[in-house]
Amino acid sequence: MGDTVALNRQALSSAHCGITSLELFPSKYSETLRFGEVKITNEQLKQKLAVRDQGVTRTTLLAMHAFEDAVRQSGLTSTEISSYDTVLIGANTVGGMCLTDELYHDANNDKEGSAYLSSYDIGSVNLFMQQHYGMKGVGNTINTACSSSANAIMYGARLIHHGFAKRAIVGGTDSLAKFTINGFNALHILSPEICKPFDQNRQGLNLAEGAGFLVLEREEDVPHKKVYAVLSGYCNANDAYHPSSLSDNGDGPFLAMQGALSSAGLKPEQISFVNAHGTATGNNDEVEGKAMQRVFSTVPYFASTKSNTGHALGGSGAIEAVFSVLNLVHQELYPSLNFDTPIESTGLVPIQQYIQTPVDHVMSNSFGFGGNCSSLIFSKA
Amino acid sequence: MVYIHHCACVSPQPNLLTAQTETIQESVDNVLHVMEPKYDGIPLGVLRRMGKAVRMGVGTALPLIHKHDKPLQGIVIGTANGGMEDCIKFLNQVIEFEEGTLTPTNFVQSTTNAIASQLGMMSSNKGYNITHVNRGLSFENALLDVIMLLREHPTQAYLLGGVEEISNYNYNIDHLAGSYKKEIISNLHLYDSKTDGSIAGEGVAMFIADAEGVGAIAVVDAIKLLPADQVDEIVVQLQLFLATHLSEGEVIDVLLTGENGDERLNPFYGAVEEVLKGATVARYKHLTGEFATASALSLYIACQVLESQTLPSHLLKYPSAKKEIKKILLYNNHKGVQHSFILVSKI
Question: Which of A264, B44, B139, B317 has the greatest number of CB atoms lying within 10 Å of its CB?
Fold first, then answer.
């Protein structure tokens, strides 16, 4: 939907959907499935970022792009970035596995390697960024599948809270990879058409790529800076039910949402809007709906921005955190797209038009494989 | 303060602590593979469906979870690569069947969060569940997470663990990248080697941790994670760490390092030993081989040494005349760029 926050806001406001067939990434499923592909080539990204190193993957380039934009907006100085009390907490699920053919070669070969030998693991993204930007603080990478970057945001906030950091640059990234395309396809949860979150006739998710980063600082440390929003609550809980689907009752989602409310000290009715996980799989949307009905006596406005972006896995929690911040900064809600018929068992209807309305607290849900559920709450600054 | 109550490990040795020099399992072609136990209490059918990393992790942790007398508040795992074998098996299918119809088993097993999530599922634990995957500082971040969790929930207990498997696939990748020695050596002569690279290994260590000392076997006082590539910087940060975390009159009795026979890293280990002159210096990677979460096994060794007050002679690099072991400093160095200090004390 764009490579700046402003372009993303414009797309969200005008109900634009960025899901298409594949144009840059070669896959057998380029035409038969739909994806959220970033229409910028690796060469263009490298040029933009002035990266000349060999062995840098698309996953890393997307992360660097978002990181640099976030840092620019936050006004952090280079001394602050390289300070021991600035931490970089990232998240992703594919690392350098977007390079399927190179990895296939290097893993099955003992003679001669490609330029990407140190770029395959998930940790490689942050390690490269830490070295590239000369960062000395605690670095970490988290993988809790689709909730990875929500947990990166939590972890960064907790490091600040406990005095292990003064500021945290937090986020996540993922790029399209044959590994995930074929993995999700084998699980029969990829949609041949543009996804329909919370619709009775939804057919699955659209895999996507992208990255989001946020800069967290303590309010008292930045009295003169523009504050976009407050991360006021968070919770990580596990559904403890099945490796790749949620339980009927949605205990994991329920506990994550409830825990985030209690950590923020908020009552359910104070939540203005929920940026739902809303992948548009049969399992997720019904369970998430039921869990929302358990948490909220009246379910607030909610939407799934995955109907605009598709599902960027380890990047999605951070991307949707940025969207939640936009809701608060501009006091506006964006429509959920492609919705016709409510799911029978819940009857829930997502918000379907752009509105301006008082937005005080936004809950952002991210639920992943392995029952890894996390909810964040952002509040008006 | 993180009090360790129970710990267990799976390593390339039948027993990491009682191993006498003559009973040490030898490496084959520069690889030390774990000796897996039977994993009592987990049905064979369930074990068979698990990849190695998940099997080792779950098999080691589940008995500990059951051993602890109160329910755990969460599961915190560090692993750089998780189920690498399953991961590349699935990848190979993608290539060889040209993105044809595949079974999702290897895919689901191969995600790095599979160990923590299987543990959550199998122990019905709906609490905090996370997997830290920051290569050579994965276990350290898991430990740091538990330090914070115990400050947030001082009456609760957590499972903490580090897991890594070595498969032909990640051996090839890391070998091509220069992490392992070109010439074949024996782990028994690991530290005599004067060449680049180490030998490959794998293993699991699991801990039950809480903030209450009653009945604990050891306590983790502090941790420092340090992305750095200069020896001088490590020295300055170590001095700062010691000044912050040792009280008047306290000293480090044993320095347990991750020395791994890689000539390129010896300047770091030498400099750290110099700062801690007078301490007993010990090392362990001839027992485990090198892997990204080997420091989890060093914490296991430290807990055992503090409890038993004995240090097997083959671990010693520089013995000292110290009688009582009260404080152990763990120093690990992953590929010269990811460093950690962990301070562990006797109860």
Answer: B139
Sign of CA dihedral A9, A11, A17, A21: negative
Amino acid at B100: G
Give catalytic status of residue A330 as yes or no.
Answer: no
- Please write the tens of the pLDDT for every residue from B54-76: 999 999 999 999 999 889 999 99
Distance from C-alpha of A72 to C-alpha of A81, rounded to nearest angstrom:
11
For chain A, the structural domain boundaries read 5-380
If you count DSSP H runs as helices and E runs as strands, how many of each does chain A have, helices first? Answer: 12, 11
For A220, list phi and psi in degrees, rounded to 5. Answer: -70, -20
> Which chain B residue's Cα is nearest to A97?
B91
Which of B80, B131, B172 faces A121 most closely, judged by CB atoms? B80
Half-sphere exposure of A320 (CA within 13 A, CB side): 39
* Inter-chain residue contact B228 with A136, CB threshold 8 Å: yes
Q: How close B127 gets to chain A, by Cα (Å)?
A: 5
Within 8 A of A239 by CB-CB distance, chain B residues are 126
Nearest to B175 among A93, A110, A251 (CB): A110
pLDDT tens digits along A229-256: 999 999 999 999 999 999 999 999 999 9
- Distance, in Å, from the CA atom of B147 to the CA atom of B270, rounded to the nearest integer, reads 29
SS3 content of chain A, % helix, strand, coil (to 5): 35, 20, 45
What are the structure tokens assigned to B17, written together?
Answer: 């602590």
> Is A5-380 a domain of CATH 3.40.47.10?
yes
Cβ separation A144–B130 shorter than 8 A: yes
Which alpha helices (DSSP H) does A109-147 contain, by range?
A: 124-132
Catalytic residue among A17, A311, A361, A373: A311
Catalytic residue among A146, A195, A235, A373: A146
Q: Which structural domains are found in chain B, ordered by start?
A: 2-210 (3.40.47.10), 221-345 (3.40.47.10)
Residues of B in contact with A164 (CB under 8 A): 144, 148
**B126:A135 CB<8 A:** no
pTM above 0.80, yes or no: yes
Beta strands in chain A (DSSP E): 86-91, 139-142, 167-174, 210-217, 229-238, 273-275, 301-303, 332-333, 355-356, 361-367, 372-380
Distance from CA of A126 to the nearest CA of B (A): 8
Residues 115-134 of chain B with CB under 8 A from chain A are: 116-118, 120-121, 123-134
Interface test mutation site (partner A, options B106, B108, B184, max chain A beta carbons within 10 A): B108
> Which are the contacts of A309, defined by CB distance < 8 A and separation ≥ 6?
A1, A18, A19, A36, A208, A210, A316, A319
Catalytic residue list contains A277: yes
Residues B261, B265, B270, CA angle at the centre, nearest 5°? 95
